[in-house]
Amino acid sequence: MRFLAEQKPSSEVVAKLAELFLTQAVREYVDHLPFGASGWLRGLTDPAVTKALSIIHSRYAEDLDVESLAREAGVSRTVLGEKFAELIGEPPMRYCARWRMRMAANMLRDGKQNASNVAYSVGFNSEAAFTRAFKREYGVPPATWRRQFEEDAKSRGEAQRIGLPKQLVRHAMAKDGTRLAYSVMGEGPPLVKAANWLNHLEHDWKSPVWKHWLHEFTRGHTLIRYDERANGLSDWDTPEISFDAFVDDLECVVETTGLESFDLLAISQGAAVAIAYAVRHPEKVRRLLILGGYSAGWAARGDPGEIARREALLKLTEVGWGSDHPTYRQVFTSLYIPEGTPEQIKWWNEMQRVSCSPENAVKLQRALSLIDVRDLLPKVTVPTLIFHSRDDQVVPFTAGEYLAQHIPGATFIPIDGENHLLLEKEPGWHEFVKHARQFLKSEGEGSDAVIAEAKTAEQNEVCTSSDGAKIAWSSVGDGFPMAMPAVWFHQVEKDFAAPTWSHWMEEALRGRRLIRSDMRGVGLSDPDPQRWDFESLLEDFIAVVDDAELETFDIFGMSHGVLVAIAFAARFPERVRRMVLVGGYAEGFGVRADPEEIQRRETLLNLGRGYAPSDRVSFARMLGALYWPDASNEMMDWFVDRLGTISVLSEQLQDVFRTIDLRPLLAKIEAPTLIMHSRGDRIIPPSCSETLAAQIRKSELVMIDSENHIPLEHDKGWPAARAALRTFLKAQERALADAR
């Protein structure tokens, strides 16, 4: 590199040297791949797999099979299958199918052929078979995929003709006196982009690499972004370049702009900064969107091969970063955007030079290498969506997988491609935009994506309990089933609009099928059942799960639904995989024999008898204030409306649950159980959940900082409750996967 920069040899010499060095670099890289690494470069270590890859890449339109590939590779079918799966990470024909679909997507994007011609070009004998295969890979038929791509291209073209919104560049002062440049553009709900290395507020504005990002995220949003310290328009001469300073800088920009609640976009090392901020301020971050992120820098990851390569890049930075000749910086460009156009590559080369000094580039790389927020991941309580390019050469794909595995409830979407930063024309950008838009949909635009999709696919059914009573039940979502025993206020027609537990249902729906029912005498269930006792409620739950054909499932019990969960889990331990119990108990208030609680309960019953016939609203508000002291007026109006249809059951409920005692059953429960209870619960004493935790062997107790019987979504205790739920479900999923 020094020879090229200082001697300025002829282009012919440069070309020959480039060929030699490229060949040697690939050989060195392949020879030093860590054990267990997969991907087509790893496949080049084996001659047979190399031959098979060459055939698949060049002859994907042919009728290939494992036998023909093995024959041409000179090995047996078994040997090729085992070697290919070991080195590439998937079987030969699965890799071939994905490669065909990627080629098909490129052809559809170019727009020169219709779907029928594309089908035959990639080896299908019928358009129908191609359509099915394409939909399996991309989620939509080819015609829809092309139309969406063309619509996006059209909207981008219109945006370019109109121009980007006006950008206002301002400055904030960090704790240590460093001046931070930030900008505000667009209109709508706020979206903050955590700074990543190599940003420049002015140059990004005109960039072929960043402009489509700015168009996308100013469409319906107010986008706030800022230049990292020692970078772009922020101060280059700063007293500290460290991870803690990066987090403080994000905090500073948010405080300066006066944001109370916002979505957070994080790319590359911005992910670690955003994660640390979200743990510090869970009340401020509405949603977290991550691309190409990691929780541990290359030095913290500790891979000797990666460390050696990074140290070499640091030396290259010291030698040639500030040179007028872009040769040195081209190395970084080829890692970040290997599929870039000549225009994009030229811009990236120049952007490196103008955005950061050589000294700061080295300091930044050193600081980023030491990042380690792995211990913070389980503490993230905000909804998180993570994207990562499969062949990212800057941050390993496994780093994105690690984030998704350890952030409770996070969703992970792999993107086909090599670019660390998604470029406008690659198929992965379209995939990213589709999911990001849905994820960031504002409250004013409709329900959360999970709830919205579930509502459209909800199935309502009716089954018959053992005594002939008709019980209404509902099935929502896909995945491993989770059943909720009926609660007094449940109503399958209206639960998705209920402020008491729609947010709980959303969590239960993440990757699962949710089954819930109306209690007998309530909602769509039999309004006048012959029996009304605890055994009938248990039999109703059994009838629902049997009608839903559930063999093994999870149970999510809330309030007095916990009693049904306990009784079922003790009677049928082989059918219950795990349980979540919120605000529950095993013994009724008559058994607990607390004089104050008994007096309070009797007073409520007397008030109900006196108020309910003449002034139901006053009684409902009085009762609601005990269940949810932090309720808003809208929440209380909902409670009054709901109580008006079911208050006839209040005395029957008190009679059933007054003397019940299921404590002898607790020792029979075998399922791992998460128990949560509000510290200030005025309906069910927290000591009741302590009893559950003491006697259920595989249990975990989490006390929630709340006075509400069931924490509400705006409750200060809800983020902690949600985090505990996600962590438990995620940990159990991993444990079950390991056991399998």
From TrEMBL:
Keywords: Hydrolase, Transcription, Transcription regulation. The lineage of its organism: Bacteria, Pseudomonadati, Pseudomonadota, Alphaproteobacteria, Sphingomonadales. Residues 50-148 form the HTH araC/xylS-type domain. This is Alpha/beta fold hydrolase. It comes from the Bacteria. Gene3D superfamilies: alpha/beta hydrolase, Homeodomain-like. The keyword Zinc does not apply. One of its GO terms (molecular function) is hydrolase activity.
